[in-house]
Amino acid sequence: MAAKFLVFCGLVSLASATIKLQEIFSWNVVDWNYPDQFSKQQALRTGALIPENALPVGIERWRNKLFVSVPRWRS
């Protein structure tokens, strides 16, 4: 049973290594939509928003929408 599982994992990894992904979108920075510029500047000044701490870890596509999850790793 374990040998079959290892062979299966090997075949899956081999098949996934041959698939070439096409980059459609890319971002250098993730930004948030604040109600106004003053609120955003205040969040930056107080440390409530630290753009460098934003690490997108999950991306899902549903119909014509793209959802990006950015968990809060730090305060």
Automatic annotation (TrEMBL):
GO CC, one annotated term: extracellular region
Secretion signal span: 1-17
Gene3D superfamilies tied to this protein: TolB, C-terminal domain (2.120.10.30)
This protein's UniProt keywords: Glycoprotein, Secreted, Signal
Source taxon at top rank: Eukaryota
Similarity field: Belongs to the major royal jelly protein family.
Subcellular location: Secreted
Primary role: Controls the pigmentation pattern of the adult cuticle and larval mouth parts.
Source species: Bombyx mandarina
Record protein name field: Protein yellow
